[in-house]
Every structure is written in C-alpha cells, then in structure tokens.
Design brief:
Chain lengths: 138, 379
Amino acid sequence: MGRHVVGRVSEVPPGGRRIVDAAGRSIGVFNVKGTFYALRNSCPHQAAPLCLGAIKGMTLPSRPGEYHWGREGEILRCPWHGWEFDITTGRSIFNPHKTRVKAYEVTVESDQAQDEEPDESVETFDVTVEDGFIILHT
Amino acid sequence: MAVATQEVREKTSGHTGIVDCDVHPYPAHADEIRQYLPMPWRDRFGSVGRGFYGNPVHGSRLDSTPPSGGPAGSDPAFMRQQLIDEFGVAYAILLPRTFCNLQPDPDFGTAVAAAFNDWLADTWLSRFNPDGVFKGSITVNIQDPPAAAKEIERWAGHPHFVQVMTDSGARVPLGQRQYYPIYEACARHGFRFAVHPGTDGMGINHQATPGYPTHYIEWHTCLSLAFQAHLVSLLTEGVFERFPELGVTLTEGGVAWLAPLMWRLDTEWKALRSEVPWVTKLPSAYLRDHVRLSSQPLESPDNTRDLLQVLEMMDAKHILMFASDYPHWDFDSPTHAFPKLPADLHERIFAINARQWYGLPAPGTDGASMPETLDPDRR
Ligand code: FES
C-alpha cells in the first residue's frame, strides 16, 4: 500500500479534481460534494486520459420520452468517446459490472506525515478542517 | 500515454509508420477561410460548421483543444504532438470539413470549396508541412460537377493533394452520370475520390433513412446507409468500367456491412445482370481494384473473434486502411481500436494498403516504385 499526499483539502474544492502521479500511474483525485475519490487516469475503452473528462450529472433511467437529470457532479465522462463513469465507484454507467476503471481509497487526515495504517474512521473527516491533507492510497 | 514514441511506432506499424486516412484540420477562425473568398461570398460565409445533428456530448476529444487556444485540430504543432508523434504516423490524410454541398446555391458552395482548398494548400500542405507528413484532399462541391472538375484541374500536379473529397450527403446516388465530369477529372489527374460522412439530410441533401431520425445516435449510426447506397450505385452504374483508373475511398462509412452487402449484390447480379450489362463480373470483384474503406469508427463486437472473421470476409487485407478521425470524439486509437491482428494483416491495414492506394513512398525510401495502382498480389 502506497500512501501519497495529494495536497490540502482547501486546494481541491468540491467539484474540483487533481491529477497526480502515484505508484507509477496517473490518478485523478476528485472532490465530490466534500468527499474525495480517486480513479485511474486511463479509460478501460481505448486508454484515453479519463480523468480529464467533464464532470457532469446524467440522465437517469426513465420511461421513453421522459428526462430526469440527476447525480450532478458524480459522473465523469470520458474526454474521447464520452463513456460515463460513476466517480464514487469507478463503475461505468452502461455496464457497471464488467466495464469499470480502478478506484483507489482516499482519506483526509490531519497529519501528512502519519506512517501507520490510517484509521478507516477518518475517511469522512470533516472537510471544514481546512488544513487536512488528502491522502491517496494505492 | 507515457509509452515512448519508438515503442509505439513498432507496436503500431513495424518500422514504417502508420498511415492515418482520416484526419481533420480546422482553421483557427472563420476569417482564415474568409480571406480566400471573393465578394460577394466573403460576406456570406458564416461559421465553420454544419449546425444540425450536433453531438449532444462533445464533438471532438476534449483533450484535443490546443493549449494555444483555438478549436481542436487547428494547431499543427499540437496535432503533431498528440497524433503524429504519439503514434508514429508517417502520413496523415487531411480531410477539411467544409459542408459546402449542403448549399442550395451551387456557386456559393463551389466558392467555399475553393477557399478551403486554397487555405489547406497554403497552410497544412506547405507551411506546416516541411516533412510532407500531411497529405490533402481537394474539396469539391458535387452539386455543380463541371465546376468541381475545374477545381480539380486547378490542383493537378500538386505534390501533396492525393485525393478529391465530398460529403456523403447528396441528392442522388454517386454512381449517376451527372457526376462523371468529377470522376473523369480524378482519373485524368491521378486523384482518388473520397466520400466522407456529412451533410446527410442537411440543406438540399436527402437523408438516407425514411425521413429524419430524432436523435444524433440514430443519425450517426445510420450514416453507413448512405455509403452502402453510394457503393451499390457506383458498381451497378458501371462507373469503374467507364473510368478504369478511378479509385473510391469510403472514409468513415463503416466497415462490417461490406461483406454481406456484396453477397447480396452479387446474388442479385446473377439474376439481373441483363439489366446492367456493362457490369461484366461479380460486382464484388471490382472492389480490390477500385474501392478502399477506412477503418474508423471500427465496429467493436464483444467477441473480438467475430470482428476478425468480418475482416477476413471483407478482404480487409487488401481494401481496409486505418483511420483515427482525429480530433473527433469517436477517435480510434492506433494502439487500442483493433484487436490483435496477425503481423502481416496489421502492416497492410496500418500502412501498406494506404501507401499503395495513394502512391506514398515508405518513409526513408525515394518512392521510385510508386505509385502502385493495382494490388501487387495480382500483378
Ligand atoms: S477511451 Fe474512454 S470512452 Fe473511449
């Protein structure tokens, strides 16, 4: 398990993202409404830099002729062919079971130098603590 | 993304560099085109685009917008970085998007086509092209074939134009006789004739479905229908008998439909040959000498064996040429769009077929043996 300091919470505000190199890979770290998620920056389709895609909502499943827009800010659309991925899980919208991008654990911690295994309970650390560190676990 | 260029080059095309048969250069601004338009057309030229059936997600790869500003495909340095160098492209066949043949006024359409040709010749085919990696397509306005033939004459002998192009949007199928001045000019000057999707159902052109589909996904999926109709028309009208030197490049029109369509046409021909007596052999037998398909957007069945069988059935070894469609949203990556192919088939699809078709020397050679019109296997 690698442990990578992505930055301070205040540097990646809700709706924002940061692309980092960690463990030899490019990984996108996203702040979705105050919670951090990380996805590998390579699309499972044709290896586009997925994490550069637009962060959107999506048209939810609906009856013919009806449109329901939802999940605003939780959907990443690939910059090439536009496949949609759930930022919170890495699963694609069109085939969540088979088509997915690797997701990584992210925690927010008060001390960037912490060496021991992070306590799971800190994952939802209150982000209003501005000086918290975003830690990516690979 | 971090793979070294040399490694990519070897992975994609042996050591010769790939030929990408569908690349789209754009002017940074409509004024770049406008400056070539005489009055009264200069004032009438609006924006660069077609304004109908727009992609609801995005029309070009989001990462293809140049850092220098301007639209996707408008910065040659960035295109070189993202396409030519990234994938080891030896030649990129450029197809500008003019949408000129949706225009009801044939004189305006012809003027727009000529302006784009001037622009391409002055920029991508010369100033931006010290190494000759870019090869161009002469846009013609097919609603005025005699004017189109004159436009072709204007570029005869140009070192970097390799084909004439039109959108697939048309009022009648492309085999019909009003187009023959265009084919005659292509054959005389050694240009291939390329058809590329666009303006189907727009302006004065018919839509190759029963009426207008509702959604972009329908329109875009059904673009291949026009290609099928155009190909059947070219074959049955005897265009290749009339113009034995003519070669037609079907660009971005789909791939997997070809074999079953030819089975169907060949079967029909056995019974109905007497209706078209100038078709002196199985219609499918004209393909190797006269028709090439570019690969993007390659159909991608879940079972890649299915696709390999389709490639075998359609004679991809001889008539399929790789294309990426850079910078458009449905870009096919040279390293990811195809399943693993046998090495010789890979080399033919990614390099040899197109080099022979367009008479392009292998990089590092003087090209003395080019152009090769006919398939070397058959000579
Ligand atoms: S590479 Fe991401 S959708 Fe195709």
